[in-house]
Specification:
Blueprint lengths: L1 E9 L19 E2 L2 E2 L16 E10 L6 E10 L2 E9 L8 H20 L4 E2 L3 E6 L14 E8 L6 E7 L2 E5 L6 H35 L7 H30 L3 H13 L2 H57 L15 H7 L2 H26 L1
Parallel strand pairs: 8-11
Antiparallel strand pairs: 1-6, 1-7, 1-8, 2-3, 4-5, 5-6, 9-10, 10-11
Helix pairs in contact: 2-3, 2-4, 2-5, 3-5, 5-6, 5-7
Amino acid sequence: MEYLVVAPLTVPPQLTVVTVPASEADSGTWGPWGPRTMRTRNTYEAQDLLATWTTLVEEHELPGGDGVARSVSMVSIQNTSVLTFRLSTPDAPGLTALAAEEACNRAVEHLLDAVLGRECRVRWINRTLLTSAPSDAPPNWLSDRTVEVHLGQRDDDRGDTTSSLGWGNNLLVGYEALPAVEQQEVRSGLVDSQVIWVSLESIAHRSATVARQQAQGSPPGRRDVLATGRDAEALLTEISTHNLLYDDMALNIQGQRRKIAQAILTAWRYHEIAARIDNRVRNIEQIAARQRDRLDAAYQGAVEKVLAFLGIVSGTQLLLAVVGLAFAGNVKAQPGGDRRGIMYMLRVVNTDVWLLLATALVVGLFAYLNLLRRRAR
């Protein structure tokens, strides 16, 4: 049995490997004409999905008679690393789907130990069975939800190559009949789907953590609200960056690579799940904005009370200054004029009355403004 195994990894920063020459790297990026610009269906220039293929080992025999791993490579796209290789296992009559899956799993675990080291952690394993007929697949190899694709016309009498892509396990019929460049494109499409899904899964995990923090019963403080606002902004930025990956696949990449990646993501209900995660992040941002507005309103109310107090004090000081002016100099002449003047009234009326009137005026004005603010909510 032949499998293409693709396993996204969590790779520590200190891990270093030797990069293969550019001509052996991303087959869809460079050709004999330099940077490719859609000259044929296999000529394009990837941008956000620009891949670097690193050969770890050409051939590695697995222990316990589990077969041989060939073309073991590490693919790096932005900050995501993916382990991929071709696995050849001995033919076993009556092979079950579970046994085939475990054979691929053991191969990945052994390569982590023997080639990469245990500091690399595998996220999950995607297995693709390479066969000449769908009947060669073990029973229940595919999930209930699959998407069929045609890789191309074969030279024999069996016609088109109808392949099925699903969750966890895939089935490629007629892969061996494809030219070498298209085989590489199929492998790149398998890697692209994993990279896009890893990006979406990371956003889903971080947004769920923030949403659970918002759902806590205790009222958040200003520091918590500001931190949640920064998290929401970061999540929106991550969604924008993630969309660039899918847009690059949908707009720039062509041929077998785009066909395989789109089919796998469709089988995984990518668009439905991406819409739910985007809606979750928008809800987080809206809740954070409302919490921030509520805290700002409370802060504004406190500031208004302080300003009202300062207004009362300032009004009182102004009144005392005017009364003091009324008693300045020779009160029989100036200031004050005759009995019809304001200064005369300030002198003859009890000063406590003026204080009470000024205080009542400021407090009444503050109460009126506060009432208008409440009605505006």
